[in-house]
Amino acid sequence: MKKTFVLAAAALAAIATPAMAKDAPDTSVAIGDLDLTKQADQDKLDNRIDNAVRRMCRVEGFDLQARKLERSCRLAAEANAAPQIELAIAGAREERFAAIELDVQG
Hints:
Layout: E1 4-8, H1 10-15, H2 18-22, E2 26-30, H3 39-57, H4 64-105
Antiparallel strand pairs: 1-2
Helix pairs in contact: 3-4
Protein name: UrcA family protein
Organism: Qipengyuania xiapuensis
Signal peptide: 1-21
């Protein structure tokens, strides 16, 4: 099973005009190869998300308006990802504990 996170700048879309909202950026991050019960793999996930957010929110230009738009996009995407990360880690821990219980009884 291929596991991915879908990151979106949803908060940015909420404050943007309707035309901008439909063009709000999104991306996905693969997590199927990670064991999220391990800190090292959680760190890898954080790096993947950070890189994906940077690519997704990159804007043309270096003026103040462009920098503000990029920062808003990053903050929105990170806020969108946070609950997904927590759920994925909690789910991985639950799966691991369930497997341990089965092994002990089995």
